[in-house]
Amino acid sequence: MQNTEIVHRSVAERRHETLDRLATERDIWVATAHPDHGPHQVPLWFSWDGQAVWVCTGAASATVRNIRKEPRVRLSLPDTFDVVLLQGAAECFSHQDVPTYAADAFAGKFGWDPRTEDGPFVYVRLIPKVVRAWRGEPELRGRVIMRDGAWVK
């Protein structure tokens, strides 16, 4: 069981731990919304390239349909004690248009390459504009660690 004692972290510590989690974790919740159909949330595998989160999902998925209508997206890592939320505008890439480095990194991390599948898949890139990170109520103040695409110092 995880230790739930809250030790107040500095912004630099939060940024460091957030970047470590983005580099090592497997799953991320992707929340999108369609102007007519409302919110949609789904867990997906992700990779982090140092600047952007990459996920991959079926071309006909609600996630892709929503992003094409409304690109504003919120992502969250699954730990409810050690919260990390990212938001920004997502961009879709077909398997033909995705940058090779991003698709190769995704395939290398998961041992699965959507480019080799029969059905069409879409890669989604989100370069965060805002990142929030906190552990419990004592860390709510100062939870914004990225604003307007720049890490808070």
Automatic annotation (TrEMBL):
Limits of the Pyridoxamine 5'-phosphate oxidase N-terminal domain: 20-134
One Pfam family of this chain: PNPOx_N
Gene3D superfamilies (alphabetical): Electron Transport, Fmn-binding Protein, Chain A
Oxidoreductase recorded as keyword: yes
Record's keyword terms, sorted: Oxidoreductase
PANTHER family hit by this protein: HEME OXYGENASE HI_0854-RELATED (PTHR35176:SF6)
Protein name: Pyridoxamine 5'-phosphate oxidase family protein
Lineage of producing organism: Bacteria, Bacillati, Actinomycetota, Actinomycetes, Kitasatosporales
